[in-house]
Design a protein that fits this description.
heterodimer; A: mainly alpha; two-stranded antiparallel sheet; B: alpha/beta; 8-stranded parallel barrel; 9 helices; 18 strands; about 30% strand
């Protein structure tokens, strides 16, 4: 590659990365959904045909095999139905040949209805030869009665005058020879009798595949490959064999194969089949085809597959960037190089098809580049039938990308509604989710709108739990605004309807709002919502949240059921006393204890968050909670005259100092990993680097060891024993 | 009395000589056979004892591939079962154990070999550990044979986290310790600088260990800045006129063509990984300082080119 070309590619990659910052990899990641705004109908393919829809990977074969098994079954049933002349239904035929019982057992039920005596021998023979058809290829044990089975088959074949059954016997015998490794006999038998086979029938297809296999096993590789190419192009029930068994291993074989073709279209098919080998490069083979037959179906189909693969790669990159996986960086580089290469191929076409034009513009949209209006006009002119909706789709996506303001979203709504109506169901959902995802990037970071929109767009299993835990530390007033918003846009309504739908009634929403208001210490508002919440959705604690014990999290002592309503009611009373300056030491103490216990560190964290993680993550709320609790304990201390009370309050303040020390460590560059009372070594290390905490323990001991509470705390609290 | 004393002395002396001989005996040179078809000619003088008999892969579903025996191996072998980590995560350990044991029994009957030990090869992770260890226990219970498992270096250094497989013996795989897919990997097969970082934990590792060493080469293919796969069993001597050197052991392909039955495209980069005799000697010497003498040193793999004298020199380090 010339230096100029390399520079051009690098510049393009750089430019792509520059423009892709509007929606970064992890920002645009949608869990469980690979949004894909292309369609096999763009290249005239049946959307259910998995042969071309999936990318070129080894794993794709299993899906294709499954698809063709279904096609084979359906076509076989059709053929039998035609032979049996409607005497039984398709379902009956399926029951005969595709049940778990042996064919002869299944057939008994229908034999009278069918009334074809010559079929009896066929059915019996079918069972007789079945073990050979199902023989494990790696099983070297030879089944003993092969010779008998074979001679029975040949006799039946020779004897029968029934054309349909004769064909079938032909196939079964050929298959017997094949699985027994008698490839020459299989070929000879086929050559001798192929005139009996109806062209285009399922038997024609199946025997062709056996012939190709026999040729290959006998070393007639190019003849086999040419036959596989024919099978791939023309067969309905087993086309996948055409690529799966197509094998080329050296240059002279490949060149000889190319020289057997009659025109560039046939050559193009060979490049296509070579591309279908999962170890080869479909992108580089696409280039080969572009050089000789750019307007062939093989170019279109391979181009479509390349596009699917690029989108799959894009999705994997998003997935790994969201999970911060190691390969994200190197995969991005490779993806960008391939995308540039693919664009280069498409741009070199003199008469690009609809799909080629669409592909280029679609890549632009995915890279957040503005669409070229003259290219869009050309695309519209080239669009016919169902392709027109995709032109509108691109225009919509372009406008969506350009939208920088939430208020501009409304104007897109009309376009979106009409688009959705014309798209297949899966793409409808994709489009809404993609639109909501784009929308979520316009809201302020970590706002309620952004959190809910993003969750809706990125999580297929959008539901209560997800939303609840994501909103753990959202702002209560902002959430209330979200709930009470009038005049929602179409997209906003979609998202809101989903969250309301998942909750079934307002109780879940009210419980979130109530919890968030408790978190914000707005107990009046909290009660407004909690009184609209079902009892089951109201959080409760086994411990009185106004009790402070010697244990760090206050979860000791007598159990008492206390729910959020009771808690908020008491906190509101205390709050009002504080506001009106009528609070005493005990009031301040109880209020502070309530604050501490509703925090992550206390006995009732569930009162103020939907989910409480067991891991200590440093957040603004955690620090606020401790600051407030400390403030009111200090107030209580100021009012307290009794030394026992002072000992109690001061001990709670020590707990806050300990919690602060843990928070500081969790956020530290030199974090000590596992400081906990069940792993004292790390905890000691932590205290060693925080001498002020040790000093406070000492101060407490000196000040309160002569009190009943103080001496009990000093005796039973591990910190005093371990750190002094 | 004198007679008895002399006889006793002689017995002690003989015992001493036997034990000394045993301790100074070098480990056995053994081989892995890793092809899907076993076809070592019967008259071959040195044949492999460690034969991969079952290959359990994963591609959407668990795939169970059994080695085909075109010739009979030694009458006593150690069948090896390879399990892909993804397969381990998807399979039911008890059902898999039963299938493995049944398959090995049938294979041994059909191909005239016996075995007293089953070896399992799986690069388990923390996620698959429980399932894998459960599989190992089940295999041992069902087969009533002794069991072995391959161990990677990081599974010795961090054995407290990664766990110790419940088997009778471990086989330390002293190769493939780098990242196959990284473009920075200098030599995927053996990188002693990386290996050295894992020379810990041997003194307390609870299983007796044999040693597996590499004896093969390959070429990693890089296309669009990504390692896409490897061509096994090739080395630099095999290159043709379309390989242009661009770095140490690295070439760029100047024309699309078939190389060892694989298609290489113009612009592909090919990086050769191989192992020099001196490197293995060096690595083994380092290992011998921290690792107890293994009973067997198993070379991967039998079909590579090897020199018996060189292999003997390697094992004699212990």
């Amino acid at each position: 590659m010339s230096i100029f070309k390399k520079a051009l590619i690098l510049l393009t990659i750089f430019t792509i990365q520059l423009f892709s910052c509007a929606g970064g990899w992890s920002e645009m990641y949608v869990k469980d959904e690979n949004y894909n705004f292309t369609s096999p109908s763009m290249i005239g393919l049946n959307p259910n045909n998995s042969l071309y829809f999936l990318s070129n990977s080894y794993g794709a074969h299993a899906d294709r095999f499954e698809y063709f098994e279904k096609v084979k079954k359906n076509e076989n049933i059709k053929a039998w139905q035609s032979y049996l002349g409607g005497s039984v239904s398709n379902k009956d035929i399926e029951n005969i040949f595709y049940s778990n019982l042996s064919v002869s057992q299944s057939y008994k039920k229908y034999s009278t209805k069918i009334n074809k005596p010559q079929l009896n021998s066929y059915i019996d023979f079918l069972d007789m030869q079945m073990p050979f058809a199902n023989q494990d290829l790696y099983d070297s044990t030879k089944l003993k009665n092969y010779a008998t089975v074979l001679s029975t088959g040949i006799s039946l074949f020779n004897f029968t005058k029934d054309k349909f059954l004769k064909e079938r016997y032909l196939f079964l015998i050929m298959r017997l020879y094949h699985y027994n490794g008698e490839y020459k006999k299989a070929l000879d038998f086929y050559s001798k009798n192929s005139s009996l086979i109806q062209k285009g029938s399922v038997i024609d297809e199946w025997t062709k595949a056996l012939k190709a296999g026999a040729l290959q096993n006998l070393g007639y590789l190019n003849e086999a490959n040419m036959l596989y190419a024919d099978i791939f192009k023309n067969n309905k029930t087993n086309a996948y064999l055409g690529y799966y068994d197509f094998k080329v291993t050296n240059d002279s074989q490949w060149n000889a194969l190319l020289s057997m073709t009659k025109n560039n279209d046939e050559k193009a098919e060979l490049y296509f089949l070579r591309a279908m080998n999962w170890q080869n490069s479909h992108l580089l083979e696409l280039e080969n085809i572009a050089n000789i037959a750019p307007e062939s179906v093989w170019f279109e189909r391979l181009s479509f597959m390349v596009m699917q693969d690029l989108q799959n790669q894009r999705y994997s990159i998003m997935q790994s960037s969201a999970g911060r996986q190691y390969y994200y960086g190197s995969n991005t580089k490779s993806y960008n190089e391939q995308m540039v290469y693919y664009r280069k191929i498409l741009q070199s076409l003199k008469n690009p098809s609809f799909f080629s034009q669409y592909a280029l513009l679609y890549l632009d949209v995915l890279s957040y580049k503005n669409l070229d209006s003259s290219k869009m006009s050309k695309l519209r002119s080239a669009a016919i039938g169902s392709n027109l909706v995709y032109v509108s789709l691109l225009e919509y996506l372009d406008r969506l990308n350009k939208t920088k303001n939430i208020n501009e979203v409304d104007s897109l709504t009309t376009n979106l509604k009409s688009l959705i109506a014309s798209l297949p169901k899966e793409q409808q959902i994709s489009l809404i989710r993609y639109s909501v995802l784009q929308l979520s990037t316009l809201y302020p970071k970590d706002s309620v709108n952004q959190i809910i929109a993003r969750e809706y767009a990125t999580n297929k299993y959008f539901g209560n739990y997800n939303v609840g835990s994501l909103l753990n530390e959202a702002d209560a007033d902002e959430f209330e605004q979200y709930l009470t918003l009038k005049n929602r846009t179409f997209l906003h309504k979609e998202v809101f309807a989903k969250i309301m739908d998942k909750s079934k009634d307002e109780s879940f929403i009210s419980s979130i709002a109530g919890t968030l208001f408790i978190q914000k210490n707005n107990f009046e508002r909290a009660l407004f919502y909690l009184n609209r919440t079902k009892t089951d959705d109201i959080a409760a604690s086994d411990y009185n949240p106004f009790n402070a014990t010697i244990s760090g999290n206050n979860r000791t002592g007598k159990k008492a059921s206390y729910n959020q309503i009771k808690f908020a009611t008491t906190m509101l009373e205390l709050q009002n006393k504080i506001k009106t300056n009528t609070a005493n030491a005990t009031d301040y103490y109880l209020y502070a204890t309530g604050l501490y216990n509703k925090s992550w560190f206390g006995s009732f964290p569930g009162s103020s968050v939907y989910t409480r993680s067991t891991y200590l993550q440093v957040t603004k709320r955690k620090i606020e909670d401790l600051d407030l609790a400390q403030k009111y304990y200090m107030k209580a201390l100021g009012y307290a005259k009794d030394n026992e009370m002072r000992a109690k309050i001061s001990y709670q303040l020590l707990k806050i100092d300990f919690a602060r020390m843990m928070l500081k460590n969790a956020n530290s560059k030199d974090q000590i990993w596992n400081p906990a009372f069940d792993d004292m070594e790390d905890l000691r290390k932590l205290v060693n680097v925080n001498p002020s905490f040790r000093q406070k323990l000492n101060d407490y001991k000196q000040s309160y060891s002569n009190t009943k509470y103080g001496s009990e705390a000093i005796r039973s609290c591990v910190s005093f024993r371990s750190f002094l | 009395m004198k007679k008895y004393l002399i006889s006793f002395g002689a017995i002690v002396a003989i015992l001493f000589i036997v034990i000394w001989q045993y301790n100074s005996k070098a480990p056995n040179v053994e081989f892995y056979y890793w092809q899907q078809q076993y076809d070592v000619p019967i008259k071959t003088v040195i044949k492999p004892h460690y034969i991969k008999c079952i290959d359990i892969g994963f591609d959407k579903n668990v795939e169970f591939r059994i080695t085909k025996f075109a010739t009979n191996p030694y009458s006593q072998i150690i069948p090896v079962v390879y399990i892909d980590n993804d397969a381990m995560l998807s399979a039911n350990p008890n059902e898999l154990a039963l299938k493995i044991v049944k398959t090995l029994d049938k294979l041994s009957k059909d191909n005239n070999f016996n075995y007293n030990t089953i070896q399992l090869d799986c690069d388990w992770t923390l996620t698959s550990k429980d399932a894998y260890f459960s599989l190992l226990k089940s295999i041992k219970n069902i087969s009533k044979k002794s069991t072995e498992a391959t161990i990677r270096l990081h599974q010795i250094k961090f054995y407290k986290q990664t766990g110790v497989p419940p088997v009778d013996r471990g086989i330390l795989m002293y190769y493939n310790m780098s990242d196959f897919y990284s473009l920075e990997t200098k030599n995927y097969i053996l990188d002693l600088d990386i290996a050295k970082q894992y020379h810990y934990g041997f003194d307390t590792y609870p299983l007796p260990l044999d040693l597996a060493l590499p004896l093969y080469s390959q070429a990693r293919v890089i296309r669009f800045s990504k390692v896409i796969g490897a061509i096994e069993g090739v080395d630099i001597k095999d290159i043709d006129k379309y390989f242009k050197p661009i770095g140490k052991d690295t070439y760029i392909i100047t024309q699309t063509h078939y190389f060892k039955e694989k298609l290489l495209y113009k612009g592909d980069e090919v990086h050769f990984d191989s192992v020099e005799f001196n490197e293995i000697m060096k690595g083994t010497k380092e290992l011998s300082k921290i690792m107890k003498k293994p009973k067997n040193v198993i070379f991967y793999h039998f079909n590579s080119k090897w020199d018996k004298k060189e292999l003997d020199k390697i094992v004699e380090i212990f």
